[in-house]
Each structure stands twice: as C-alpha cells, then as structure tokens.
Design brief:
This protein has helices at 100-121, 123-128, and strands at residues 22-26, 40-45, 52-57, 72-79, 82-90, 137-142, 150-153. The protein is globular, with a radius of gyration of 15 Å. It is built from two helices and seven strands; from the N terminus they run E-E-E-E-E-H-H-E-E. It is 17% helix and 27% strand. Strand 4 (72-79) and strand 5 form a beta hairpin. It has a single domain, classed as Severin, CATH 3.40.20. The protein has 161 residues and is of the alpha/beta class. It has a seven-stranded mixed beta sheet with strand order 1-3-2-4-5-6-7, covered by helices on one side. The N and C termini lie far apart (31 Å). It comes from Jeotgalibacillus salarius.
Length: 161
C-alpha cells in the first residue's frame, strides 16, 4: 500500500449536511456515548432521494452495502496511545480501471459531507468525549492502482461540526 500523505485544507467543505436527510441507527453493543475504540460507522446513501444512512456499531453494517461500493466506513482506533478516526473508501469497486479516476473524484468531492454526517449523527458521543474533536482523521483510498491508493490526513472531526 502506498502511504502517500497529504493534509486536508480547511475551507474545502463546500456542501452542508441537511440533518433531515440523515437517518442514524445504533446497533447492539453501542450506546450514544460508548465504546470509543472499536466504534464503527457505516455510511450509505440513496442516489434517488439523497438520503444518508449512518449505522453506528461494533461491526460494519455490510448488509447495507450495495454492489456500487460507494459506502464510507470509519472506525475509532489507537496509535501510540492516541485515538484517531480511520476512514476507508473502496475506490476501484467492481469497475473498469478507467472508472477509478471518476470514483476517486466523487469520493473526494463527497467525503466532507460524509464526515459531517458522521460527526453530526454521533454528536452526543462527541459531546461526551470532546477531546475526540481534535483527533486526526486518516482516510485510506483503497485502489489497486498506485496512483489512487493513498492514505491521507483530512483534519479532525471538530472541523466537520
């Protein structure tokens, strides 16, 4: 895996979340404030209604992932004693390699909105753990093409509130 890193530039948040378009579901084993490490987010959406669906659990909600593979997966992890939000997007999908560039551009355009949806949808968790608003967000753009397979810093959850 290529470990090319870059930093998210503040001011890149162009779309704003419409909370009425966000549905949040808590799976068994999580509460609105616990746990921290191992807390997983599965964010999917409807292309027809533009509704967003956030599932918060101990496991990813793979049953909600479609063949388009345009979901955003995120998880709280620890490195060197510090928490960080690890975000995963599958850039390739089951598509022709020529489509990878388009999918990469779409993910980059939509990720600020996705991160805002996660931050807003789990706002009581962040209120209970305010230090997490300063934790780094690391995004893995997963691709078999080294040009698109990247690991990037996209700021902190606090930027997306």
């Amino acid at each position: 895996m290529s470990r090319k890193c870059s930093t998210f530039q503040e001011g890149d948040l162009s779309k704003k979340l419409n909370p009425e378009k966000l549905t949040v579901e808590f799976s068994t084993g999580v509460t609105i404030t616990e746990p921290v490490i191992g807390r997983k987010y599965t964010l999917t959406h409807s292309d027809i209604t533009a509704d967003l669906f956030l599932t918060i659990g101990l496991q990813f909600a793979f049953e909600k992932i479609t063949s388009m593979r345009d979901e955003v997966l995120a998880e709280w992890k620890m490195a060197n004693g510090f928490p960080f939000l690890y975000v995963y997007v599958y850039v390739d999908g089951a598509f022709d390699p020529a489509v990878t560039a388009v999918r990469d551009a779409i993910f980059r355009r939509e990720l600020p909105l996705a991160l805002e949806a996660i931050r807003y949808g789990d706002r009581k968790f962040f209120a209970a753990h305010p230090a997490l608003d300063s934790a780094p967000i690391w995004i893995h753009f997963d691709s078999t093409n080294p040009m698109y397979n990247k690991f990037e810093n996209w700021g902190t959850p606090g930027y997306y509130k």
